[in-house]
Specification:
alpha/beta, Rossmann fold, Arc Repressor Mutant, subunit A, two-stranded antiparallel sheet, disordered N terminus
Length: 253
């Protein structure tokens, strides 16, 4: 068993570590509390490291790998912005590093983004994925399996989440209301591209300068994007787009 300091009940220190990452501190704390329960049976150390954004992830994983030769599993709690996906691909170059995604918005779209390999990639971006409401047993299980088999843990989204079917095939996803919205926006490259720039934090004025657009064009494109996705304002637009996985991939289906 693993105590709060990550030492097994036998007194032997494991040579594998798990680090929990989340942009929201409270969410990261709740997940770590689950993993620190005294009845949690695991063969890894829960690293006491706070990772709130993707930028320092590579450095932290490198430091942990120098200490834990058996491997490191990174638990990404509800990653949304594209920088998490890029950071995950970067650290996955080390075959002893596993990435596990715990998502609050389970869908085919999200899972596909994190399972698909781009040309030149040796590994998938992540080793396994579960929904945020998964049991503690599954959470411990996916971490252990990912450390054992970083290439493919075998843990992925179930067929249903909260009694709602999770589409597992493109045709199934695009037959849903959410999928139809995603397809509609992806079919409008100008509007979709402007949404991606807004997701990077660019203001309308910055987009006009960067893309050499006339004054007011970014705002009009974002208004159309809100219409496609049924959003009432910019904040709601960002939330819906994130839930549909539109920020995780810049290439339309």
């Amino acid at each position: 068993m693993v105590s709060k300091d990550g030492v097994t009940g036998s007194g032997d220190r494991p040579d594998r570590a798990v680090v929990v990452t989340a942009e929201r501190r409270l969410l990261a704390g709740l997940i770590k509390m689950q993993l620190e329960q005294p009845d949690t049976e695991a063969s890894w150390v829960l690293a006491d490291v706070a990772v709130k954004d993707a930028a320092p992830l590579a450095r932290i994983v490198h430091e942990l790998r120098s200490e834990y030769a058996g491997g490191v599993a990174v638990l990404l709690v509800d990653p949304v912005t594209p920088d998490w996906l890029r950071a995950a691909k970067d650290v996955r170059r080390d075959k002893k590093v596993a990435i596990v995604v715990l998502t609050a918005r389970p869908s085919y779209e999200i899972q596909r983004r994190w399972r698909a390999k781009d040309s030149g990639d040796e590994e998938r971006p992540c080793s396994g994925m579960l929904s945020l409401d998964s049991s503690r047993g599954d959470l411990v299980g996916v971490l252990g399996a990912s450390l054992d088999r970083p290439k493919e843990s075998g843990y992925w989204l179930e067929g249903t989440v909260d009694r709602k079917k999770v589409p597992i095939h493109p045709a199934e996803f695009y037959a849903t209301e959410e999928g139809a919205k995603a397809r509609m926006l992806r079919s409008k490259p100008d509007d979709y591209g402007t949404l991606l720039l807004a997701g990077e934090g660019l203001s309308n004025e910055e987009m006009e300068q960067r893309e050499h657009l006339a004054e007011g064009v970014p705002g009009e494109r974002l208004r159309r994007a809100r219409k496609y996705l049924g959003a009432n304002n910019g904040i709601q637009l960002g939330r819906i787009a994130a839930e549909l996985g539109l920020f995780l991939d810049t290439s339309p289906d």
